[in-house]
Every structure is written in structure tokens, then in C-alpha cells.
Amino acid sequence: MLEDILKQVAAGKLSPEDAQQQLATFENLGFAKVDHHRKKRQGFPEVIFGEGKEASHIIDISRAMLSKGDNVFITRMEKGKADAVMSALPAFQYDEISKTLFMKNKAFEQKFNDYIAIVCAGTSDLPVAEEAAKTAEACGVEVRRFYDVGVAGIHRLFAHIDEIREATVSVVIAGMEGALPSVVGGLVSHPIIAVPTSVGYGANFNGLSALLTMLNSCASGISVVNIDNGFGGGYNAVLIHQIANRST
Predict the structure, then answer these.
(1) Mean of per-residue pLDDT scores for the chain
(2) In the chain, how many domains are there?
(3) Last residue of a domain, one of 69, 103, 137
(4) Are residues 157 and 224 in the same domain?
(5) The domain boundary residue, chosen from 47, 72, 103
(6) Residues in the chain with pLDDT < 50?
(7) How far is CA 244 from the centre of its chain?
(8) Confidence (pTM)
């Protein structure tokens, strides 16, 4: 990229001012520095964490990203704040279950084959599972959902296991005792991203018991992200999926 820009400047096709703007690594909005080069470094644009941010700040950050042609994905958005953002940028689509906003500013490049499996133990875990699923879809990856297949009725998992096995990587979400990733990990030959949720009764300790179960799994190939971190699970799965597609 740098060499191309310098050649354009030398040939008189690009002014030094425009070249400087293209080479800027971030845009300073005062309250935020928008990382426009995230896509060049990591393959995907910056994702906006909505919790704790003012709606006006989210709108300004989104506009800065849209001006560069990026798609915009926002997590942890309560409906009231999402409505305020959509009043200014109505092209956003809000998903109330995952609490995410997404605007597709440009078409995805057709660079991925196969799919990621999102495997969810119970209906109470759906907000975290959908955050993972929406994250992967915002990165242009096909997702297949396998929901309500927890260990209390393990036959429900076995009904889908052949399709799950064909995925490049699985994101497995569970609360309570968090046993599902261990079960899936013993049945598939691809990486598992385990996501503990805070769903459960008192001794679940807001997800700590599920987290410790997943960290102590005897099944191989399991990595664990933080409690309720559906975004982290989905994003890590996308990175694995991206690497797998490079070799095809």
C-alpha cells in the first residue's frame, strides 16, 4: 500500500495532502481515535463496544467508519440507545436478542468457504450465542445455529452432530455447570471456542462455575473466553476460519 501511494505521488496522480490522509492510521475525533487501519492489519474493521458510550459518540464514530467505506458493527447496545443511533443512521439493523447493531456499507468479498457452528446449551444462553453468531456474520462468515442442545437432553445434540462435525470451528456456549464444550470437544476434530455464560443458580457465581469447568475440560482443542463474551468467541472463531480458508 505505501509503495503504491508513493508511486502515485511521484507520478502526479495523487497530491501529498491526499497521500497523507490515506496514510493516516487513525482519525482523532477528540473523544475517540477511530482505527481506520484495523482492517489492513487484522482483516476486519474496528468493532464498536456500545456499552458506556453516548449515542452521539457512537453516531460520530460510525460516520467516520462509513466515510472510509467500512461496514459497522456495534455490540452491547440497549434498545433505547440503539433507537437513538438509528434515528440518525436509519440504515442500521438492530437485533434485540444479541443487542447488536450492524450496517453493511459494502458487499462482502467472497473469500470464505464452509461455516462456523454456534452451539448453545439452553434458551437462556441465546443472547450470548446470538452475539457470537452476529459477530461472525458481520465478518462475512456463514453461521449455522444449533440451539437448545444442552447436556440435560444430550440426544438433542446427537441429532445435529454430523453437521456440527463438518464446521471449520465451533463456538459452544453454556451456563449452569458449563459441561457442553467438553462433550462437543470429545466428538469433533476441529477447534472449540468455549463461552461461559452467567446463567445459573447461586452456586454458579454469575458464570464462574461454568468458566472453571471449561478451563478444566479434559477434552482437547478447547479454548475459553470470558464470561458472556459472545463477541470474543465469535471473533476468535472467525480468525480460525480465516486461516483455514487460506489453505484451501
Answers:
(1) 88
(2) 2
(3) 103
(4) yes
(5) 103
(6) none
(7) 17
(8) 0.86
User: Cβ(155)–Cβ(181) under 8 Å?
Assistant: no
Cα 215 from chain centroid (whole Å): 21
Same structural domain, 139 and 240: yes
Q: Directed axis angle between helix 126-138 and helix 230-246, to 10°?
A: 40
User: What pLDDT was estimated at residue 245?
Assistant: 84
Residue 126's pLDDT is what? 96
CA–CA gap between residue 223 and residue 236 (Å, rounded): 10
pLDDT digits (tens, 9 = 90+) for 202-232: 999 999 999 999 999 999 889 999 999 999 9
Q: Are residues 72 and 145 in the same domain?
A: no
CA trace torsion 52, 58, 61, 64 (10° rounding): 170
Neighbours of 209 (CB within 10 A): 18
Contacts of 147 (CB under 8 A, 6+ apart): 118, 120, 123, 126, 129
CA end-to-end span of the chain, whole Å? 25
Q: Which helix (H) or strand (E) holds 22?
A: helix 16-23
3-state secondary structure of 176: coil
Residues 123 and 87 occupy one common structural domain: no
pLDDT at 43 (0 to 100): 76
Residue 5 CA to residue 15 CA, distance in Å, equals 10
At residue 70, the pLDDT reads 86
> Which amino acid is present at 219?
A
Residue-range definition of the domain harbouring residue 60: 23-103
Three cell numbers, residue 167 = 464446521
